[in-house]
Design goal:
The complex is a heterodimer of chains A (about 290) and B (about 400).
Chain A: H1 4-31, H2 38-54, H3 60-90, H4 94-116, E1 132-134, E2 137-139, H5 141-163, H6 165-175, H7 177-182, H8 187-209, H9 219-234, H10 241-260, H11 264-279
Antiparallel strand pairs in A: 1-2
Helix pairs in contact in A: 1-5, 1-6, 1-8, 1-9, 1-10, 2-3, 2-4, 2-8, 2-9, 3-4, 3-8, 5-6, 5-8, 6-8, 9-10, 10-11
Chain B: H1 2-24, E1 29-31, E2 43-50, H2 57-76, E3 84-90, H3 99-108, E4 113-117, H4 120-133, E5 137-139, E6 156-158, H5 163-177, E7 181-187, H6 190-204, E8 208-215, H7 223-231, E9 236-240, H8 244-257, E10 262-265, H9 273-278, E11 287-291, H10 298-311, H11 319-338, H12 344-352, E12 357-358, E13 367-368, E14 385-389, E15 395-398
Parallel strand pairs in B: 2-3, 2-4, 4-5, 5-6, 7-8, 7-9, 9-10, 10-11
Antiparallel strand pairs in B: 1-3, 11-14, 12-13, 14-15
The chains are: A mainly alpha (about 290), B alpha/beta (about 400).
């Protein structure tokens, strides 16, 4: 636990997990269920941007913006064409929507493989800087960008939720959807905003993480799973909870193999997830209700 | 409400796992002329078990595309004895538990020969099913020797040098360079587990193996494994993986945290151009991999021209391309010699009689031969070419410091 290189890894992958979990949290607040298509949103942004840069020879900055646009559009379409339609026909229960977004997960994944190709592509960066060596510590430029961007995004989302009208409406819808509907709040529009914002954050996460080892159409599923686990650990009671969950999950993934060898990471992650499901399903931070 | 949410959550988790499994289930589709479940008089059906979505996708897709190109080339030239080739496709995701189902499905779809474009562990699992089905199967990219050895190898073939010969190459280089302490970083796939069981005992005979670390194929970070390796103070490393994301992550991490320490690798990294671009700048400069491409081989040069004509001038020939291409033409030669594909025993016997086939991979003069008791095609060690990279992560060709001798087995 004293090796700073390992803590740097915790920060790096924990930030990524936290961003994916934040995207989960927004759709959970807005629509009341876990959107398992979040990982593919991140993947399609990164893979799309890489494909546009490498294969279509489009300038990086435009490719990155188009990648983000793809993620936002796919996320919005998930709400408008899939979730909303399914819930309209089957009531507002969670299970039909969960089934629908799980189907979207695989559709987006396979669709991205068909459109952008199945070989993995390198992640794209606006500017390349670093790496730096501080004694035994190796610090990549991509790590700095990922961690700094994560902090900024969490800060902005936190402020948006507290200070903006739409953010406060989103919290109101999340607190009590039925009451919000009865009060005439624009629940449908708020849900759409939550999906669009989730797509944007997931897309940014994918773009920031892809330079680490590249991105393939299959990346979405594993990103979905780690983001989900980070949210389960962190909970939904605070805007910062997904980041805490991501960092805890990152610490498990880094330190478990260091102390327990190859037996460690998968076993520890599953064990921790099991413990949270059993004893604290609301995560580390639960919502406080004022009476 | 809480109970409902928990049930919904668990249900969704179960559904996710189920759908993940379903997505990996044998997907049967057909390519080429016509559709249907069995061959008609005017066509020959190749069954292609192609891992296009699993851990072997990084190489199986490359090989699969070249298989299609070779089939198209043959069909454009009139087919085999006037019959067009049709490909039926399955995908076992290199998962040995799925392979028997995929193989049976391909046979049900009318496959008359099988191409096992998947992980070695999956091919091993499929051997007995192939034997029961009684149709020849070639694993173009397999490097696990037991694929071509008994038991149950009566209908199963592989082309390349076995991975135990990789270990001979590493040992030769390790002794030549005077390395004393080797650390191994592996992915935790079934295929690599099988490969390590073959090569590690051989390596232990020539060098002190001071650390063996592994991580899941989809690991997000390898810093912990590399930190443990650093504690063992190795002077040479081996990255044993299927390639793809894990291999890139391994070399990025090792290059950063153990700079200057030579890293051996299996064949994967040399055959995956997309991985070279994903590695950090200079991260592959200390990597020596077991390649199989030598530009002095005229067959290799010829194939490269064809691939560039189809895929563009930027296309990079890999050993997977060459092995896939040779597989299709070996099958063609066997079917022609057998007088057709209707009698699988005759096709198998025809394959067994092929000798001195000039391969599109390996050093100049490297040949492939089969026999009733020789189902590993490589004639000698000339199929192996220890190769390296430059600072731009571009292959530099044969390694100057050491090459495996071209001795006949």
């Amino acid at each position: 636990m004293t090796d700073p290189q390992l803590w740097l890894s915790v920060l790096e992958i924990g930030s990524f997990f936290g961003l994916i979990a934040l995207a989960y949290q927004l759709t959970l607040i807005g629509a009341g269920f876990f959107n398992f298509a979040i990982g593919p949103y991140a993947m399609v942004a990164a893979l799309g941007a890489s494909w546009l840069t490498i294969e279509a020879k489009i300038p990086v900055v435009i490719s990155l913006l188009l990648g983000l646009l793809i993620a936002v559009v796919v996320s919005g379409l998930t709400e408008l064409l899939v979730v909303r339609q399914v819930q309209k026909r089957s009531g507002s229960g969670e299970l039909p929507a969960l089934v629908a977004v799980t189907a979207v997960l695989f559709i987006v994944q396979q669709g991205a493989g068909t459109v952008f190709g199945r070989p993995a592509l390198p992640g794209q960066m606006l500017v390349s800087f670093g790496p730096w060596q501080f004694g035994e510590i190796y610090l990549a430029g991509t790590t700095v960008v990922l961690v700094a961007s994560t902090a900024v995004i969490f800060l902005l989302v936190s402020l948006w939720m507290k200070l903006s009208r739409t953010g406060r409406l989103l919290r109101a819808v999340g607190d009590n959807r039925s009451a919000a509907t009865l009060l005439g709040l624009p629940v449908g529009r708020i849900r759409l905003v939550a999906f669009l914002l989730a797509g944007l954050i997931a897309g940014i996460a994918g773009l920031l993480y892809a330079p680490k080892t590249g991105v393939a159409f299959t990346s979405g599923l594993s990103w979905t799973l780690v983001g989900f686990l980070a949210l389960v650990i962190g909970g939904t009671g605070r805007t910062w909870a997904p980041l805490v969950g991501g960092l805890v999950l990152g610490a498990i993934q880094v330190f478990a193999p260091f102390y327990f060898g190859s037996f460690g990471p998968t076993t520890m992650v599953l064990l921790i997830a099991l413990l949270f499901f059993a004893f604290r399903p609301q995560g580390l931070f639960s919502t406080r209700v004022r009476i | 409400m809480k109970t409902q949410r928990l049930i919904a959550l668990l249900g969704a988790a179960a559904l996710t796992v189920t759908l993940a499994a379903c997505s990996a289930d044998p997907e049967a589709s057909a390519e080429g002329s016509g559709q249907g479940s069995s061959a008609n008089a005017e066509e020959i059906i190749f069954g292609l078990n192609e891992d296009s979505t699993g851990p072997g996708a990084s190489y199986a897709v490359i090989a699969g595309e070249t298989i299609r190109m070779a089939v198209q080339e043959i069909n454009d030239a009139g087919g085999i004895d006037g019959k067009q080739i049709r490909i039926v496709i399955g995908n076992d995701e290199s998962d040995p538990t799925k392979t028997p189902t995929v193989v049976r499905k391909l046979v049900d779809d009318g496959a008359q020969v099988l191409i096992m474009d998947t992980g070695s562990a999956a091919v091993l699992q499929g051997k007995s099913v192939v034997k029961q089905a009684g149709i020849p199967a070639i694993a173009p990219t397999a490097v696990t020797t037991s694929v071509g050895l008994a038991p149950d190898n009566e209908f199963t073939y592989m082309l390349a040098n076995g991975v135990d010969q990789f270990a001979e190459a590493y040992c030769g280089a390790i002794e030549e360079k005077g390395y004393e302490k080797l650390a191994i970083l592996s992915d935790a796939s079934a295929a690599i587990d099988n490969i390590n069981k073959l090569i590690v005992p051989i390596l232990e005979d020539c060098v002190d193996v001071v650390a063996q670390e592994s991580a899941p194929v989809d690991a997000a970070d390898l810093s912990a494994q590399v930190a443990r390796i650093k504690q063992a103070k190795p002077d040479v490393l081996l990255v044993s993986s299927l390639g793809g994301n894990f291999e890139v992550l391994a070399h990025n991490t090792l290059h950063a945290q153990l700079p200057g320490v030579l890293r051996f690798s299996l064949a994967s990294i040399g055959n995956q151009p997309d991985s070279w671009a994903r590695a950090n700048p200079g991260a592959l400069a200390d990597v020596i991999y077991v390649g199989a491409i030598d530009k002095n081989n005229p067959q290799t040069v010829e194939l490269e021209k064809k691939l560039k004509a189809v895929n563009g001038d930027d296309y990079r020939l890999t050993a997977y391309d060459a092995q896939a291409y040779d597989t299709v033409y070996l099958i063609k030669a066997a079917i022609e010699q057998a007088g057709g594909a209707d009698d699988p025993i005759a096709v198998r016997d025809a394959l067994d009689s092929i000798t001195g086939y000039e391969a599109s991979f390996g050093q100049s003069g490297f040949t492939l031969s089969f026999g009733a008791d020789k189902h590993i095609g490589a004639d000698g060690l000339c199929g192996l070419v220890l190769s390296g990279f430059d600072e731009d992560n571009e292959p530099t060709g044969a390694w100057d410091d050491f090459q495996v001798p071209c001795e006949l087995e």
